[in-house]
Structure formats: structure tokens, C-alpha cells
Amino acid sequence: MEEHDLIASAWTWAGAAPLTDRVRAVADAGFVGLALSLDDLHEVRATTGFARLRRVLDDAGIIWVQLGTLDHWWHGGAGPVDAEAHRGVVLEAAATLRAGQVVARADATVPGTTPAAMTACWDQLAAQADSVGAQLVLEPEPWSNLPTVERASRFVAGGHPNGALLVDTVHALRGGSTLASLRQGIDPTRLAAVELSDGLLHTAVGMTLAEEAREARHVPGRGAWDLVGFIRTMRALGHDGPWGVEVRTPAYRALPLADALRTAAAATRAVLDAADAQGTAAAPAMPTTPAPTSAVDFGHRGEAPALPLPPFPVWSGRHGGPAALPVDGTGPVTPA
After folding, report:
1. What is the spatial distance between Cα 10 and Cα 136, in angstroms, rounded to a whole number?
2. Structural domain range at position 220
3. Whose C-alpha in 82, 138, 195, 333 is 20 to 30 A from the C-alpha of 226?
4. Helices (H), strands (E): how many in the chain?
5. Percent of the chain at pLDDT exceeding 70
């Protein structure tokens, strides 16, 4: 089986312990990367400084670093004061920490702005990230003005070359994507990051999609989603980088941090190993009904047409072929 590099998302290793202790817990669990939240970055700048944190990361063996998530970047210098402070601390940290990626989200305000009106600010932010050695990645969310992975892919493909796409399992599924629509709608040259979570068949009654993303991200392999098929699809699109792990449930947060991190890492590696197994069918089985056309919205007015379906590579050895099953989730559910 292939050795898999894992990145602990900010939520996956959040806690009340000192940052240095939490970094060591991440490394001890087998992660080789982590995502630093804006709160962590502001705390570090106000206390120990980023140079000291970089030494801590080096000592722990942390290689991959993500920063964010940036919001309100589409206002340029006319946005909220804290948005400019966040941008400043992220760019400063990226330069010193040698961060590989800066994560940004789309506009979730109401009535919000249009993607077309965000293009110039996106290009500016991508250029600023490039100047400090980091790649800018967009994480689309179903409740934002770029609600689907496919539409977000078209947005970044039309912009600055340093802008790329982050595909999050929860956001892709709840945005209406299927494995087929992801293969067809993602520009492989802009796919830069993937985050894995598991989830329930349906969003719980009374819970919004945003609340589900914050409170019901289950340990990979312990939910109802076809993560094996999703992983194979991302690999078919050319993703060969580390895999983000984003887990957040009440049960997970109740565990001691070291135990929680070891559980998340081991479970994620088991799913990745299952995806490695050549000829193994994706499990659990998924229905073949595609998502509604309106959910994926390939032909949205004023945007470029959907990208042609990229050919699947011929895999050999440890990799199996991509599953042709949608990520719309059925099957047994095991609580996290």
C-alpha cells in the first residue's frame, strides 16, 4: 500500500492546550501537515512569533502548512477592518512558515456579490500569495455565491495562474455533485487540495448545511458516503498531494486530543488503503441516480461551458480504477 501524507485541518486538531503541545500531538498521530486558523495565527504573531513556530514545526516533522480561511477578500481594501488584518497576518505567516497554501472562501453574505465582480480581487490576492511563496486555493461552500465545486472550478480556471481549487467532501456532496460531475467539471490543472470527511445520508432535521459542516463531519469510513469512489475520482483528476482530514463531531471533540488525532489518522489511512486496492469495488454501494442538473449547473449563464471529461489514466500496481458512482450517499452509518 502507498504511504499517505495527511494534513490535519484546523478543526481536527483544535483544542485548549498550548499550540506547541497540539502541534506535537498532530505529529505524534502521524500527520505530516496541518492547517493553522486565523485565531492561531494572530495568537502566534502576538506572542512567540512565526519564526519560533517554524522551528516547532520543523522539530515535529511537519512539512505541509495551510493557512486561513480568508473571508471578505472580494472587497479589496474597502472591506471590514478585520478582513484586512486577517489578510496581513496570513501573508506574513506564509512567508516565514513556508506555507504551501492559503485558503479562501467565497461570499456567503446576503444579498452578496457576483463571482464576476470578485475576479479582480481574486487575482490580486492570488498574486499576493504568490509573492510569499504560497498557492491560493478556493474552498467552495453550498451556501455561498460559488455553491458547487464545478462552478468554483470555472471561476479559478479563468483567473490568476496561482489560483486553484480545494475540494471538500462535505461541500461537494451537499452542493449536489456526483463523482461523474466532479470528473467532468473540475479542471485538473487547478485541483490543488482535497479534504476528507464522512457524513450521514441526509442532513439532520433542523440543521442547516453550514451547521452540518461545523458539527457533523464524521471520521472517514464511519459514515454513509462513498469515500473510496471519491478518492479514486480525485486521483483520476491528477491529485497526488497530501489529503486533508477534517473531523468535527461532539463525540470526537470529547476525546483527548491525542486519541482523537490517532483515530482520525488511522481511519483515514484505512479508507485510502481501500482506494489503493486494485479491482476492489467502492463500498458502501451508492445509487446511480445523478444529482439534479440545477445543482451542478454546468451551463450557468455567463460562464464558460463545462470542461470535457478528462480521460482516465491507466493505473497499475497499487491503484484501482476510478469508481463510476455518485457521491450522494447511502449505506450503513456507524457513529463517529
Report:
1. 17
2. 6-296
3. 138
4. 13, 8
5. 82
Please count the other Cβ atoms lying within 10 Å of the Cβ belonging to residue 107. 21
Query: From CA 215, how far away is CA 176, in angstroms rounded?
Result: 20
Among 203, 210, 11, 207, residue whose Cα is nearest residue 110: 210
- Model confidence at 212: pLDDT above 90: yes
- The answer to whether residue 44 sits within a structural domain is yes
| pTM metric for this prediction | 0.83
How many CB atoms are closer than 10 A to CB 80?
Answer: 11
Tell me, yes or no, whether 334 lies in a domain. no
CA angle 17, 221, 267 (to 5 degrees): 45
Residues 105, 110, 115, 117, Cα dihedral to 10°: -110
CATH code at 181? 3.20.20.150
pLDDT digits (tens, 9 = 90+) for 274-311: 999 966 554 443 333 343 333 444 334 334 333 333 33
Residue 312 has pLDDT above 90, yes or no: no
The x, y and z cell numbers of residue 208, run together, are 442547516
Q: Tens of pLDDT along 122-179?
A: 999 999 999 999 999 999 999 999 999 999 999 999 999 999 999 999 999 999 999 9
238 vs 144: CA distance, rounded Å: 26
